[in-house]
Amino acid sequence: MPPRERIRSTHALVLRRRDVNDADRVLTVLTPRDGKLELIAKGVRKTTSRKAGHLELFVHASLLVAQARTWDIITEVQTVESFRHLRDDLDAIAAASYVCELVDNFAESNDEIQPVWDLVLDVLRELDAGAARHELPANLLRWFDLHLLSLTGFQPQLFRCLDCERPLEPTINFVNLHEGGVLCPDCGGRRNDVEPLDADTLKVLRFLQSQPWPAVSQVSVRPPVMRRVESLLQRYLIVVLERQLRSTLFLRRLAATPAGPEIDPGE
Ligand SMILES: [Zn+2]
User: Does some domain include residue 229?
Assistant: First the structure.
């Protein structure tokens, strides 16, 4: 007797798509319970397809999926969140592309990743709301970087010296990206595989890493400090992922987002 077709339902966020066969498309999606999956949407490139609009990039959809030999097949799809404001704003599209690409690089298959799912959806909602009022939230992507790193086991050590484990003081410390953390002046000063890290940059990194988004969204960081934060995080991500992220350069424009009134992030 042939095995009964198995159908399951899942929420999914479309991270990536590629065309196969004449009219089909293979989608890389993020799901809360099964991590990253590749699924096939049959006939989705035909003009008559009713599924097509629900399977665009960055759509949060609810799917029914049938088990199959190569790719599991999407049999039903409904849009849960379309993020339609985000789609009208080039900067928001660039930011959403970055978010999806980064999570695509970190997520694995058959992995329950509810916290990562919640983080990514929250960031897309913030981008969508920002696009609706024509003001993208500053510092959101750097907050996302640090929280994604924490949730995936790559949290940089920003509070204690990597070598002697003493609490770091607000002075010039040192950072080692390959070891994923900061060294005090005594320990870092003796090594030649570190770079100096000023107190303001460390303070902002700690703030972004330790605070929830509502707190971070209230704060404006001086642009030169934010550029150093961005540079460090991008280089750390490259070390972690061992390769350059394609959308990084595309995003340089985001660094030029005008800053609001300056507020000190405090301790
Ligand atoms: Zn030390």
Answer: yes
Q: Concatenated DSSP letters for 155-167?
A: --B-SB-TTT-PB
Domain hosting 67: range is: 7-81
Residue 102 structure tokens:
């980064």
Ligand 1 (ion): residues with CB under 5 Å are 161, 163-164, 184, 187
Interval between CA 183 and ligand 1 midpoint (Å): 5
Residue 114, in any domain of the structure? no
Q: What is the pLDDT along the chain (267 residues), one digit of tens a residue?
A: 445 569 999 999 999 999 999 999 999 999 999 999 999 999 999 988 888 888 999 999 999 999 998 999 999 999 999 999 999 999 999 999 999 999 998 888 777 899 999 999 999 999 999 999 999 999 999 999 999 999 998 999 999 999 999 999 999 999 999 999 999 999 999 999 999 999 999 999 999 999 999 999 999 999 999 999 999 999 999 888 875 555 554 455 444 444 444 445 443
Number of independent structural domains in the chain: 2
**CA 61 – CA 79 distance, rounded (Å):** 4
What's the gap in Å between 174 CA and the centre of ligand 1? 10
40 CA from centroid of ligand 1 (Å): 52
Contact 250/244 with Cβ under 8 angstroms? no
